[in-house]
Amino acid sequence: MAVLVMAFSVKTFAQKEKKEGGEFKKFKVDVSLGYALPTSSGGGSKGGVLFAIEPKYAVINQLSIGLRMEAAVTVSGISVSSGTLSNNASAKASGSYILTADYYFTNNDLRPFLGAGAGLFTTAGADLNSNNSNVGSDTKFGGIVRGGIEYKHLRLGVEYNLIGKTTVPASTNPVSPAYDIKNGYIGIKLGVCIGGGRK
Question: Is the pTM of this model over 0.90?
Answer without folding.
Answer: no
